[in-house]
Every structure is written in structure tokens, then in C-alpha cells.
Design goal:
The chain has 482 residues and is of the alpha/beta class. Helix content is 39%, strand content 8%. The protein folds into two domains: 2-102, no CATH class; 108-440, TIM Barrel, CATH 3.20.20.140. The strands form two sheets. It has an eight-stranded parallel β-sheet with strand order 2-3-4-5-6-7-8-9.
Length: 482
């Protein structure tokens, strides 16, 4: 069965700063740890033990430092091949890291999540688990607001974030992250910081109401009450209280009136889940086939396609020994390549952005060659100025390890030559990590953004009790138990 990664790691005395097995964001079944990932974990533990001993600290303490993070990428390079830029000096001295990597880099994460405080989050995406009468739940504080602030803003280099929706309709007992809560969290953090650190979304979707008027009224209420910055849509989901029908972005009868209302309300960023077809739901509607027409018909709207339509193919209960996303001889893989082809064939789709939450994190830690195909194809089709940073945290724990992985990630020269991919330049990475999202959300990157004040620490003392104010290296999504 499955277990939250943080709980499994505590049980097995694992403290890796980078996940050593695939973590589910609850939109695919967690696969078994691969043989390569086992090698990475074993090698990292060996290296960390030796380095920690020489530095006079224990392995757990070492792995919470920048040296420990660098050591994790050294281990990954030794197992997977050279995908991450890291030098040996970084594994011993924090100064070596400071010399090599950018300071004050603007990073804007457009896919972050928390849930209502006190709620014990079930394994919500896997319908068959409930059918079997099996109750799986996470620590009640893992996805809570206090831990969200700690992991996103105190333990990572994230400058700004967007609190992103979780499928649901309005406020109620089944809604774990309603529009109201996202807005409250945004306002609280911005007030504490005395500057804009957070934006929020609305969960209101075209299939949530039986009539257009009901839908329009709710959209207007949320826009004027919660003042969100974008709409978060899940075309493949049919939450309780909805019409029960999935839908397509290019449905002129159902969805185009929704776009008209969004225009009227002045909120024209449309964030859409594509890829990662959640088990037990309408898989076909996670395919990006509808993006092209919707974008071309609505050039004044901005479509941010979450996950870049990455189809994980991790939708079976059987154990896996590798990420089951077949890569063709030309580098093609499901469904991101389809998404990229549509963009290359339609140059006018300049209002479409590819977001890489969970897709990059999963591929980079399980099959880095797939991450190279992902980024190589996205850059070729959309350009580095149309790829947007997202991490799907808190499911993946603090986003810092993903920031580090992306900063260091490089497409090997042999893959560049074979598939025609262009290298990822420092400028490309600046664009992806924050400048592109700033342009979409009209954020002034030069505006002063205050840190969370020191006295906030006393308010989240419980979250720091076991970590002494250090990174937790905890990952809260689900993994296979065994």
C-alpha cells in the first residue's frame, strides 16, 4: 500500500535533501523505488556519513546543509550520468556554493498548495482505495498553513508564490483549499511581510453550476470578494455538487461564456491542469488537445498549462522499476510532445505558457534523461520565455531542492546533438524560475519584498520544534510502503 514519504523516512532513518523515490501528488499511483534510486540513496548515505564525520557532525545534520544538498547531486550524477552541475568543493564548504550560484534571484512558484488547518488529508485521488474500505491519511499538520509558510518562505529561496487551487466547489466539508482560504492565506502572509509575497487563485469552474447565471454570479462574487489573480481549472474533475460532466477548453457553448465573464471581471490568466490524469477520473480530458483552439480563439487570454501536459503513466497498482513514459527514437513522449507539436505548428499560440510543476521534479529524480527531453522540447517549441516555474509543493516538501535541481540541471551535449536541443543558459533559468511568471502576473521584480519577520518564528514554533530552525528534508506526498 502507500505511506506519506515523511513518515516512511522517519521510520527508515532517511534524511536525503532530494527525494530518492517518486512521490505522488495524488494524481498518480506511487511506484516502487527503482534500482537506480536505491543506488543513489545508498551512495548518498555512504558519502554523507564520511563527510559528516570529518566535519564533526552527524549525518542528519550534514544533509540539512548546502553541502548535503550538493552531495545528493554528486550521488545522482554517479548513478544517472552527468545531468547536474556540481563540484566537489560544494560538498565540503558552504562558501563554495555561495560563490557559484546566484544571490537574490527572483523566483516565483505558481503552483503551491496547503489545506485547511486540522484536516487530515486522505489519499483523495485514488477512488479504489476508498472502495476497499482502506483509510490512508497523512499527518494532520503536514499540509497545514504553518508548515506551508515554513517550507515555502523560510526554507527556500522562493521570492513569491501563487497559492494554487485543489479541485473542489466553494467552501464546505469536502473542500480542502477553497478560494476563500487561498485569499485569507495570501492576505495574512502579505500583511505579516508588509509586501506582496503571495497571489491566489479561484477554483470556480465551468461545470460547477447548472446554469450560466449561477456560474457568472459565483465568478463575480469570488473576483470582487477574494480578488484572486487567476482561475485554476481542472477539466477532468467532477467534484461533489457539480454537473458531473468533464469538459474541454474549446467547448464554445459551455466554456467560451466563462472566458467572456473572466474578461468582464478583468482576470484573464487561465491556469489549467493538463497531464497527470488522476486515477478514477476522466483521463481523456487531461490531454492538451483542446489548448490550441481555445488559445487561438481567445488571444487576449493567457493560458498557463500546468504540468506541461506531462503524462506520467504511473497509473497502475503494480510495482514499477522505472518511470513508464516510453521515449521514442525521436525523443517523443506522452503527452507533452503533442503539446509541443501544437505550439510549433501554430506560431500564434504566444498566449500559452508551459508550467513544469511535478513533471520536472518527478522526471529529474527518477529518470533525468526524461527531464532533459521535457525541457529540451519545451524550449524548442515555446521558447525559454514561455516556460513557467511551479513545484507542486507542499506535496514535494520544501521547493528548495527543486530550485537547486533546476539551477544545476543541464541537457547533456550528446542529447543536444542527437535531438537538436539547445542548452539551458543562465538567462533561460532566470526566465523560467521567475521572470516569466512575473510578466504573466504583472509583477515588478524590482519591488522590495520583505522577509517574513523574525517574530513569526514564535508563531510557528511547533513546525520548527524538531528541526531547530533548519530545513526538515521532509516530503509529504505519498510513496509505496515497502
Amino acid at each position: 500500500m502507500w505511506i506519506p514519504k515523511s513518515i516512511k523516512d522517519r521510520r527508515n532513518d532517511v534524511h536525503s535533501p532530494v527525494p530518492t523515490e517518486a512521490i505522488s501528488n495524488e494524481e498518480f499511483y506511487p511506484p516502487a523505488q527503482t534500482e537506480d534510486q536505491k543506488k543513489v540513496e545508498h551512495l548518498l548515505n555512504e558519502m554523507a556519513e564520511k563527510k559528516a564525520r570529518k566535519l564533526g557532525i552527524n549525518r542528519r545534520q550534514f544533509l540539512r546543509t548546502s553541502c548535503g544538498m550538493a552531495t545528493a547531486f554528486v550521488a545522482m550524477n554517479q548513478v544517472f550520468g552527468h545531468f547536474f552541475d556540481v563540484v566537489e568543493a560544494e560538498t565540503w564548504e558552504t562558501a563554495a556554493y555561495d560563490e557559484r550560484w546566484p544571490k537574490n534571484q527572483f523566483i516565483m512558484d505558481v503552483q503551491t498548495h496547503h489545506v485547511r488547518d486540522g484536516i487530515v488529508l486522505p489519499f483523495r485521488a485514488f477512488d479504489f482505495v476508498r472502495d476497499l474500505g482502506v483509510q490512508l491519511s497523512n499527518d494532520k499538520d503536514s499540509y497545514g498553513f504553518k508548515n506551508f509558510v515554513k517550507e515555502i518562505f523560510l526554507d527556500s529561496d522562493t521570492s513569491m508564490c501563487v497559492i494554487s487551487g485543489v479541485p473542489g466547489k466553494e467552501e464546505g466539508p469536502t473542500s480542502v483549499l477553497p478560494t476563500k482560504l487561498m485569499a485569507q492565506s495570501r492576505d495574512w502572509i502579505n500583511q505579516v511581510a508588509g509586501s506582496t509575497r503571495v497571489l491566489a487563485q479561484s477554483n470556480c469552474a465551468p461545470n460547477h453550476y447548472a446554469t450560466k447565471q449561477e456560474l457568472f454570479d459565483r465568478m463575480e462574487f469570488e473576483a470582487k470578494t477574494y480578488k484572486h489573480s487567476s482561475w485554476k481549472l481542472y477539466p477532468h474533475t467532477t467534484p461533489p455538487g457539480s454537473t458531473g460532466q468533464p469538459w474541454w477548453l474549446d467547448d464554445e457553448k459551455l466554456v467560451y461564456p466563462y472566458y467572456d465573464q473572466a474578461r468582464k471581471l478583468g482576470i484573464k490568466v487561465i491556469s489549467v491542469h493538463k497531464g497527470f490524469p488522476a486515477t478514477g477520473q476522466h483521463e481523456a480530458h487531461s490531454h492538451p488537445r483542446d489548448v490550441k483552439k481555445a488559445a487561438l480563439d481567445n488571444p487576449d487570454l493567457t493560458f498557463v498549462i500546468y504540468h506541461s501536459a506531462f503524462k506520467s503513466n504511473l497509473t497502475t497498482t503494480s510495482a514499477r522499476t522505472k518511470l513508464d513514459s516510453p521515449i521514442g527514437a525521436d525523443g517523443a513522449f506522452e503527452w507533452t510532445t503533442d503539446f509541443c507539436r501544437d505550439r510549433k505548428q501554430n506560431p500564434r499560440m504566444t498566449n500559452v505558457y508551459a508550467e513544469i510543476g511535478s513533471s520536472f521534479g518527478l522526471a529529474a529524480t527518477m529518470q533525468p534523461a526524461l527531464a532533459a527531453h521535457l525541457l529540451g522540447q519545451l524550449k524548442d517549441a515555446f521558447g525559454a520565455d514561455h516556460i513557467i516555474w511551479g513545484t507542486d509543493s507542499l506535496w514535494w516538501g520544501s521547493p528548495q531542492w527543486q530550485i537547486e535541481a533546476f539551477r544545476r540541471f543541464q541537457i547533456p551535449e550528446e542529447m543536444q546533438k542527437k535531438f537538436g536541443y539547445k542548452p539551458l543558459t543562465p538567462r533561460d533559468k532566470d526566465l523560467v524560475l521567475g521572470l516569466n511568471a512575473a510578466r504573466v502576473y504583472k509583477i515588478d521584480v524590482k519591488e522590495k519584498r520583505n522577509a517574513i519577520p523574525a517574530d513569526y518564528m514564535s508563531r510557528i514554533k511547533a513546525a520548527y520544534k524538531e528541526t531547530d530552525g533548519q530545513p526538515s528534508n521532509a516530503f509529504y506526498g505519498w510513496v509505496r510502503n515497502g
